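Lab notebook, design round three. We kept the backbone fixed and only want residue identities now. Task for the bench partner: fill in a sequence for the structure below.
Input structure tokens:
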């Protein structure tokens, strides 16, 4: 599940889904896991660009990737969605901001110690 309890986690998730190309990736993965080359073909996107978007989605906790060996011994990378629901309310934003402020204050306190 994506991390929405902190300001950094909430921003990572919102930034990840705010891009039209990453929204297309999520839509393609909604039907199940897909090999990265097949996903690139479906999206008419270069693999390096696709990997950049998948990395952002993975860091936000929205997708996961796994390497598998084919019968011929070739490493194949598959991606799939991690179950998630993004619900942004004033309360969620306030809680994330408070958590971020508390973490920042704790870091300052630790440096002073």
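Proposed sequence:
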């Amino acid at each position: 599940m994506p991390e929405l309890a902190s300001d950094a986690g909430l921003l990572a998730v919102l930034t990840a889904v705010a891009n039209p190309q990453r929204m297309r990736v999520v839509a393609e993965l909604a039907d199940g896991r897909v090999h990265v080359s097949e996903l690139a073909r479906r999206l008419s996107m270069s693999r390096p660009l696709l990997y950049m978007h998948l990395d952002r989605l993975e860091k936000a906790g929205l997708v996961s990737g796994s390497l598998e060996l084919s019968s011929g011994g070739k490493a194949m990378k598959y991606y799939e969605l991690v179950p998630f629901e993004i619900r942004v309310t004033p309360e969620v934003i306030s809680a994330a901001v408070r958590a971020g402020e508390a973490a920042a204050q704790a870091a300052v306190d630790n440096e002073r110690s």
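Keep this in mind before ordering anything: The chain has a mean pLDDT of 89.
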